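anyone seen this seq b4? input:
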Amino acid sequence: MVELRKSGGRGRTVLDWLDSRHTFSFGRYHDPRHAGFRALRVINEDRVKPGGGFPVHGHRDMEIVTYVLEGSLRHQDSLGNGSVLRPGDVQRMTAGTGILHSEVNASDTEPLWFLQIWILPRRRGLEPGYEERSFGSCSKRGRLRRIVSGGGLEGALSIHQDAEGFACLLAPGEKVVHPLARGRAAWVQLARGAVTLNGTPLEAGDGAAVAEEASAVMVAAEPSELLLLDLA
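predicted toks r here
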């Protein structure tokens, strides 16, 4: 079964510096039909104007994964981390007992475009933590590259949940298959391009849940970039 979440049906927050699309309920946007999927709670697609950004704010008891698509994101947090993330870079924060951070567009001339994903941790009250890593285009081209996992497998960032995240770049006509173990499900988020997912067409910004299927099969109709989350 594939349950499609169309791009145009998402929630939206527009500020003078931000255009944010919410796949699930977030902030002032509340939709009980779309409150998360298994341990997945948030997928926000954020576009930040030059010089704009999120000032210092706090989080607790959440695994937060950031995936940069275009531009440069300057991050600082209360653990003392500070860096600039660029396309292909992935960041993991364990908010745990509490963390403060800021996220701003590091450029005064170029826009910033990124996805942010929130996943519930196995348990509350974890020690806050941080990791970042770059996953080059070559490692994602024509294959699902593991970028986060519960055990940090194959150089992936380690999250505190029985979940895995993969990134993929596909050329037109290319296909990737992700087997799903019994009882598990997947969420596929298409950042750009066009693919079919088990025969269901997805356009840029669309997401879809895959459940009660042996696998998730993605075939690109045009150059595409997607994320897949495998969830217990």
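Helices lie at 137-140. The radius of gyration is 17 Å. kinda curious what u guys think
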